[in-house]
Specification:
It comes from Ectopseudomonas mendocina (Pseudomonas mendocina). Helices cover 30% and strands 28% of the residues. It is an alpha+beta fold. A six-stranded antiparallel sheet has the order 4-5-2-1-3-6. It is globular.
């Protein structure tokens, strides 16, 4: 089973890859299919219905609010921890 990491950028865009790039924040890791399923089910979908966003980050008035929204999302993801999926920092 392939392992993957879900990470996000300051603007809230969520992407997937084998590692967290410089400047991004890791949000979850585990088996690729499970991580994608959980993130796709819990993330906000952008207007183009293709990009995934951390709920609350794009709407945040400032960096502090954006980080608080990200922290809430990671805690929420932590409630879904189990075989094949683990929220990072939760």
């Amino acid at each position: 089973m392939s392992k993957i990491i879900a990470y996000c950028w300051a603007g809230g865009l969520i992407q997937f890859g084998p590692s967290v790039p410089d400047g991004a924040i890791g949000i979850a890791r585990g088996e690729e299919a499970k991580v994608r399923d959980v993130i796709e089910a819990t993330a906000r979908h952008a207007k183009d219905n293709e990009r995934l966003l951390v709920p609350g980050v794009p709407e945040a008035a400032n960096e502090r609010e954006g980080l608080a929204a990200l922290a809430r999302y990671i805690q929420w993801l932590g409630e879904r921890n189990g075989p094949g999926f683990r929220a990072m920092g939760a």
